[in-house]
Input
Amino acid sequence: MERVPPLQSEAARAIVRDADHPRDSEVAVFGPDKPLTLDAGVSLSPFQIAYKTYGTLNAARSNAVLVCHALTGDQHVASQHPVTRKQGWWESLVGPGKPIDTDRYFVICPNVIGGCMGSTGPASTDPKTGKPWGLDLPVITIRDMVRAQAMLLDHLGIDSLFAAAGGSMGGMQVLQWAASFPQRVFAALPIAAATRHSAQNIAFHEVGRQAIMADPEWRGGRYLVDEANPRRGLAVARMGAHITYLSDAALHRKFGRKFQDRDNPTFSFDADFEVESYLRHQGISFVERFDANSYLYLTRAMDYFDLAADHNGVLSNAFKGTPTRFCVVSFTSDWLFPTSDSRAIVHALNAAGARVSFAEIETDKGHDAFLLDEPELFAIVRGFLEGAGKARGLPPAGKA
Amino acid sequence: MERVPPLQSEAARAIVRDADHPRDSEVAVFGPDKPLTLDAGVSLSPFQIAYKTYGTLNAARSNAVLVCHALTGDQHVASQHPVTRKQGWWESLVGPGKPIDTDRYFVICPNVIGGCMGSTGPASTDPKTGKPWGLDLPVITIRDMVRAQAMLLDHLGIDSLFAAAGGSMGGMQVLQWAASFPQRVFAALPIAAATRHSAQNIAFHEVGRQAIMADPEWRGGRYLVDEANPRRGLAVARMGAHITYLSDAALHRKFGRKFQDRDNPTFSFDADFEVESYLRHQGISFVERFDANSYLYLTRAMDYFDLAADHNGVLSNAFKGTPTRFCVVSFTSDWLFPTSDSRAIVHALNAAGARVSFAEIETDKGHDAFLLDEPELFAIVRGFLEGAGKARGLPPAGKA
Output
């Protein structure tokens, strides 16, 4: 029976190392002259953003595509992950000749503020104490993440993005980009996203947070100082969340009620069913690459996200007079960010007079479909960016 | 911020006390001459069943109704709970003049084997060691629970039930009764149930079990011997499960994105949203009345339940030639035991040539609807039992 391995101070040290000195990444450091103003009402300074780029920025600086990652993603969108050694999380969509074509576009993928792969987050060293921030880091919002990304663009000398694209929490950032900086986003691709988190989604996140905070190794958030790590709590949080990323149909198709390596039940609490074994594996592999406090911060950011509330309760006000063109995508079996959420985005964009196309893709793969092999998604993204590229005056494919 | 209170050995002692000597309950003890043969391939002996009865058994012994409880229910179906002091969990449906009318029927509600309210379960004392069974208790199945209930009926001198009724895990027991003892069940009422647990449901259960087993206070299941108690893990398990009992729509209606006692976010990890506060309360109150190992055993029993697998993969074989009349009920917003599960029951019963009526009740209350104020459910149960009572030759209402 697979178990989360025993706690080791080495693991805690590795988390802090990656948080401060990310491998295989570029880092933009923003000093005391460039503080990040947070929604919590305080400033974060100094802070840093770790990011990856792919492709070449053209002379007109007009071909930049920002890819925003989801809750447990990071900047390694189209190249090998330095910790897991797995391929980039969106290599199906981003790369040479791919729908987000790095032969044509200059792709930037930053780790979000609050994350744990090199952008300032709770595992980063607090310069005032020389110790990991832990819960002393102010709570971060989606708008804060986007504000920091805008500062990264300034740092890179990029006035305006050709496109911003992302799924799930990444899609929330795309929507926030369009709302906060409409003049800086030519085209926006929010996939499997919503303009606010539902009560059910907040509830699932809260269970994950409670699982982490119930782990005695969490130590009030100060585990890194103690060289501890609430891995068991984090693994449980991940297992629960992972169910919500899949659909009942996908779980049934993949696992059904099949037993693991046997034909009959063991009459025990071992991982009897394949689906149990799969989930345990998901939990165990996640804790190797993710910081528990980051999980608290990023789920909180998603819970707080509510674009309508930021605009006097009227969602369309968030996009009033927007010049951005939108392509909104949802998946039929996604029950975490169901199609009704995407329709609400489309209705608000229509009310705001925006250019918007909408596609609901038929699939049984659930919310995770945005990360998986979905040829219809690839065709939609490719087509939308080609059309937007023409409007933007980018050279057609093969003429970059 | 509400927190699970610190562990106390008193809590562990209370669990053992209730498990061996249930308050406000009758207890049937089965000695060495009456072992319970378990699906796990071993015998349980001695064992006991705690139960409650309401109403009067008629002279013909033909008016007995067995009520089967769900995962976290118990025998206190229609009277005050001795621990929580709350009213019985199905008083809306069971009592004088109620649809399951205790003026007409003799209602028996046993605590299931594996439970923690007085029937033999992991918190009960193992007579061989004088200590709580813990994980040394063999794994229990739904069929084992029903076998034990049949022995209770023998003990009570009741040959045949007028009806068996229950929701969720209670509905599984009702279906198992009809499959195992067709001659002993005149009418069967499985509500919000299924003939097998889905991969998604197994997955949610596994997360709950892992939350319990990740709590260091669980101590390999031996916490009662150590006078410890994995309350935090059990609270997290309950919180996660509770989300699955409600619907997205019900959560939205009840809580939406409302903040708890304030208008704005706190930018902290307190229970900011009402839904968080509600869930934490659910977790905390649950651990006051439930044993963590029982939670492991009962979720396992549900996971293992698969009536078709017990009958060479053909579900209708489970009901072949059954004389029982069935009323199957589902709820539109129940995504844990969706209507498709109930339809599968109905199709199998049709294929087996059984008498069956089916009702899908329109509600946004999710799986929990079977426990709540659902007038349509009350009318259906009352009507079905009245019709069955006529067929059984019971005196009409008011003539008992």
Summary: Chain B touches chain A through 58 residues (CB under 8 Å). The mean pLDDT of chain B is 95.
